[in-house]
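The instructor's notes for this session suggest beginning with a concrete chain rather than abstract definitions. Hand out the sequence below and ask the class to guess, before any prediction is shown, which regions might be ordered.
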Amino acid sequence: MDTVTHTLFGILLYKAINKEEMSKELKHSFLLTSLVGSQIPDIDVISQLWDTAGQYLMWHRGITHSIFLVPGWALLLSIVCFLIWRTKDRRIFYLGLLAVFIHDTSDIFNAWGTGYFEPFSQARLTFGTIPIIDLTIWAIILGAFIFNRVRKHVPSHKVFKAAWCLIAAHILIQSVQGYAIYQSVDDRYEQVALAAEFVPWNYQVIGKRGNVVEISKATVWSEPVLIRTLPTATNANLDDLFAQNPAAKTLQQWSPFVVVVDDEKQLGIYDPRFFRNGQSFLFEFIDKGNH
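After discussion, reveal the predicted structure:
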């Protein structure tokens, strides 16, 4: 998910806590844990500063998003809260677990994915059933704040707990539909990936078959509609590309599959899941003049 959504998740977590008869120090600890825990896995963005080998794609949403690192982040947040406010409460640790778990797990539902099982597996776990920026989730959260403001007799923590239930239901419905679409086209292609669109219940199916990658629009109520066909030079020799542009090797490892461009001007690869307006923003290449 994007930074705004993760921030909203942190606020929503804090608002869903019943804070009656809670000390000021404990409230501060819960607020810090909710907000920072909802963001801390993305600390990996600083790895751009020392990436000289084109590894950032693997580092971003990599080990810091591992499910096995969740207790470590929660413990760190508990220690920080103790050092600042001298608070000792197991609920801080549990809240940290929940905040980081939600961050890591929500990220596997979009096309970017995460290294959810690192360091034991370098594979990217991605379902592609939720867009990176999900306006439906934003609308649910906004609705919760509006409802909480106009219906003040309803305890606020119950309102925001209900918002979490709606978000979970939305993700479940999106994912069940995406899985059904994936299963319906899996036998048509050698490799398949999904990318959710901004409109709920609408998806792009990206399928590779031989020297062609097809991009189709799909819903569970209709047959996929082909919108673009991309030729891919499957048998091209990519050794020079990887030698001259290490980021290309990383992209090949990171993506479920790539489109290979081998023409008179360029040798390169790109991720077709992010193909928009005639190009993919994840495109690594070398000019044939440097070949």
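Then share the key points. The radius of gyration is 22 Å. The longest strand covers residues 222-231.
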